[in-house]
């Protein structure tokens, strides 16, 4: 059977295990020899025990677990040519020419570059007698399928990344818990949520918890935000509300691009309204815990589709990313999605927020 390997790379997210499980089982079902690569690209470079054959039962009882059982890492060695040569050698000597990479845009970009370089890497390995002529010929094509695992929902091309829904569940639980204590003491709480430069988690959490205010990177606050915020909070209290909840995305900014931090918002509330105010930074709690049903199913569907894409690939097939479009699993050109995702970052840096939001929308 064909050699197929799965690895997780970059920050973990809930639902990655469901995806790993699905890749392994679909691969076996279709007659592949399936491998885990542990610790992301680092394991591919280091080889040895890091690359291990998987079987049907090695992915039993993992669908409900958060994180990734095969480990993840941000790898510096893979950035170096020698690292990639080692990685290619480790794959070829095991007969692996199909890769499923589960990660964010950085990890997917790395995979694409690896594939572009594959032929040159094999030539160099052959020249240095690290692989044989037969191996050079037999494994000359590398096929790649990407899955987007991230709580941030910041990848262009897919409606939801694997992990976002679970992170939202975690955030909502935390807000509900905070509300009861805030109510008792008539306090204002400022909750900082993750998402890097994407405000999706903050926005959806705010909508579903009836927060009074949300700060997100894509909609930087106007110059008179202090006045507007204070007026709103005051109104809420006057109308009998005993608490206020403000959600701040970790990437929130003002129109000059300066960060709007939880500390800053607290200072505004305390100085202007003298409200009893506390900050809660949710941090990595958002990335932990068991995956929601949605993320389990998403991981399963994406994983199976990735394996099918690889098995149908011809030498000319470009790397794809398996995405959710409406309720459909679709295959999109990996590099186009990465390019769009990078264009969003650039638009944000250029303070062109309208363009950023537009680019992030559906394809
Ligand atoms: O990309 C996922 C994420 O959790 C972001 O929301 C956050 O900014 C970042 O990773 C935190 O990174 P680390 O786990 O390296 O602290």
From TrEMBL:
Residues that coordinate or bind substrate: 150-152, 187, 194-196, 250, 278, 284-287
KW Lipid biosynthesis (keyword) present: no
Domain of life: Eukaryota
Domain Phosphofructokinase: 4-309
Main location (coarse class): cytoplasm
Residues at the catalytic site: 152 (proton acceptor)
Gene Ontology CC terms, in alphabetical order: 6-phosphofructokinase complex
Chain intervals for the UniProt region annotation (N-terminal catalytic PFK domain 1): 1-363
MF annotations from Gene Ontology: 6-phosphofructokinase activity; AMP binding; ATP binding; fructose-6-phosphate binding; identical protein binding; metal ion binding; monosaccharide binding
Record bears the keyword Cytoplasm: yes
Binding site for ATP: 11, 74-75, 104-107
Localisation per UniProt entry: Cytoplasm
GO biological process, one term: canonical glycolysis
Residues holding Mg(2+): 105
Keywords: Allosteric enzyme, ATP-binding, Cytoplasm, Glycolysis, Kinase, Magnesium, Metal-binding, Nucleotide-binding, Transferase
Assembly description: Homotetramer.
Family: Belongs to the phosphofructokinase type A (PFKA) family. ATP-dependent PFK group I subfamily. Eukaryotic two domain clade 'E' sub-subfamily. Belongs to the phosphofructokinase type A (PFKA) family. ATP-dependent PFK group I subfamily. Eukaryotic two domain clade "E" sub-subfamily.
Function in brief: Catalyzes the phosphorylation of D-fructose 6-phosphate to fructose 1,6-bisphosphate by ATP, the first committing step of glycolysis.
Protein name as catalogued: ATP-dependent 6-phosphofructokinase
Protein's organism: Pieris macdunnoughi
